[in-house]
Amino acid sequence: MPMTHETRSGGLPPPPALAADAALFLDLDGTLLDFALRPQDVVVAAGLREALQRLHVRLGGALALVSGRPLADIDRLSGLPQLAAAGLHGAQVRTPAGVVEQAPPPAAGLDPVRAHLRGFAERWPGVLVEDKHDALALHYRAAPHAQAAVEAIAADLLRIAGSGFALQHGNRVVELRPAGSDKGTAVVRLLGEPPFAGRLPWMIGDDLTDEHAFRRVNALGGRSVIVGPRRPSAARHALAGPDAVRAWLAEAASAPGPATG
Which stretches are annotated as coiled coil (predicted)? Predict the structure, then answer.
């Protein structure tokens, strides 16, 4: 039996053409960008920034980047600081008007966690500790054998940090982030602001961190698109990988006139 696009996508159909009334929310790593061994080593593919800029115009500004990275990283990689965005899994939100809203960090902060973490990465070569000030991530992409150790110490760190934080598992990463916000809450927050308000939400992402947004978008009758082979997922459409996402976006960006679908 020949393999169809749908079977390659794990039984999920590809997304249709971008709709005229879309409010488009895009994850970065693993979705727009191919993963690298270290987060700072990701490469922005040629033409991606231009496609995002064109889509931003075609959608009347209703395009946002939603990432676990801080806003400063999102802007550096996209080169488009004028975009609405959500960083740190929704703990930071920049509205279309450019107003940055940030969830207040828990009073205890992460200092006790940082002290507890000293030396861990040295004992596990290849494990990278990423300090985002209000969040800490343990990446083991270069040391997949360290997964159990990383998950164990992450659970210890959560006990030390207390109830103001939550653990966020992702693709070869475990992150300690502020509790009470996620990508789903960020999407809903932005949908309350023009030009997003009244539009149909689309969320494209690859990781467990995107599932919160998929569920919110589904509840609103929008389009949810998972990138890559991870299953199960709440997403209702699929694209094979970042290359496929970039090709889909380039096609949407190059269509004449307003987005149609």
Answer: none
Q: Is the pTM of this model over 0.85?
A: yes
Distance (Å) of CA 201 to CA 7, 164, 182, 204: 25, 29, 16, 10
For 249-260, what is each residue's pLDDT tens digit?
999 998 765 554
Query: Any catalytic annotation for residue 41?
Result: no
CA distance 63 to 215: 19
Which of these, 62, 58, 80, 60, lies nearest to 255 by C-alpha position? 58
User: What gap in Å lies between CA 125 and CA 128, rounded to an integer?
Assistant: 8
Chain centroid to CA 151? 21
Alpha-carbon dihedral sign for residues 37, 205, 168, 234: negative
Burial of 254 (0-12, 13-18, 19+ CB in 10 A): exposed
Distance CA 137, CA 130 (A): 5
Q: From CA 179, how far away is CA 166, in angstroms rounded? A: 5
Q: Which domains does the chain have, with CATH numbers?
A: 5-103+181-254 (3.40.50.1000), 111-178 (3.30.70.1020)
CA torsion through residues 184, 187, 193, 198, sign: negative
| Tens of pLDDT, residues 16-33 | 999 889 999 999 999 999
Indicate which residue of 27, 75, 207, 210 is catalytic.
Answer: 27
Q: Residue 80 in 3-state DSSP? A: coil
State the alpha helices, DSSP H only, in 45-181. 48-58, 71-78, 111-117, 120-123, 147-161
Residue 2: strand pairing partners: none
